[in-house]
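Hi V.,

You were right to ask for the full record rather than a summary. Here it is.
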Amino acid sequence: MKIKIYYGPKSGFEELIPEEKITLSELVIEQEAIRKQFIHLQHGETIKKRERDHIKCLVAYSESYASITESAVQSFNSLINVSDIENLYLQNPPVHITNLLEESYSEDISYEDYVYNLLNKDKFLKIIQGAKIIIR
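Predicted structure:
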């Protein structure tokens, strides 16, 4: 699995990720539905072993981490290992998730930081003039 960890705004992140993707939220919903199916099985019924889904690209936006439970964050590797994932793109992941991934996939991780435009004195003055703020 190739992992890209991106630090920056959503606009820059979306330039990196392919159009065809599955989001972390979609994966969690699917896994929860499968888990509920197993809960409803009758005692003694044979559970057919489920093959791992192949996911070409799994994407987690900054807001995705808030939609998963604390236990899912704590065991993030287990969450992603349920499927066969080729490419994992993470936008601004929590430090705990980054640490877990570095422990298991350190050689497969690349990092990218968004390069913000610098604000110089002239740009600052234009902003102030445009906002009609008076400095005394």
